[in-house]
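ok trying again, last paste got cut off:
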Amino acid sequence: MTQAAVDRTATTRASRATNPVAEIRDYERSLARSNQSRTRADRPREFEMRGRTWDLMNEVFAPVYSPSTSVALDFLGWTEKVEAPRSGSMLEVGCGTGVIAVMGALAGCDRVVASDINPWAVANARLNAARHGVADRVRAVQSDLFEGLDPEERFDLVFWSSNYVLAPAGHRYDSDHDKAYVDPGYAVHRRFLAGVCERLTPGGSALLHFSSRGDLDLLHRMAAETGRELRTLDTRTVVEGDHLVDHLLLEIAAAR
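nice, full thing came through this time. structure:
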């Protein structure tokens, strides 16, 4: 490493130490969290959430080490008592263990697709759909966003609890697990914004779970560039370690 690179690294670390926003958005910290979650010795094979027991496979995002899955369920109103029942069809992008997709079926959705780029997550979602008796309504598929779906398939609800931490464009993932934590250059977010509205039925909703760990200003700029607009439907503030993190439920719509 050159001296100039050493100096830049030292300056960046000093900035993060004095700037909490930079610290919570630090992609290297998120990747370290991913690695710790994936490799820790006490990682469980099952976990409890919303009064139910769920399977957790290796290499799959673990809801027990992050509040995001629980926050997403709160946004959707899917608790043990299902405060916000639904009907119709649902696509969950980035399904991980399948908790949200399964809860969607339990809340009343009659057709649910749980998609993930990580093949371990697809297998995990199938396990949990079978475990909770909704395998007839939940189909788990390996897909990079919409690429693995039937081109004609449309949904009343598309939901993505995204990998909202921004990594530098060109960053190479060390594992599929890391893909649940960071998005290099927001390339996946841009493709989601550009394509999601075409996946909706008439009157359908496209919802994105984002947070202050991500770059909301950049997301808004990308939305405008792709002919979309973002509307904040709900927010939650959660203590994560030493920081307060704002979680947001955003609706994506065609720009007017």
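cool. Confidence is low (pLDDT under 50) at residues 1-17. Residues 3-254 form a domain with the Rossmann fold fold (CATH 3.40.50.150).
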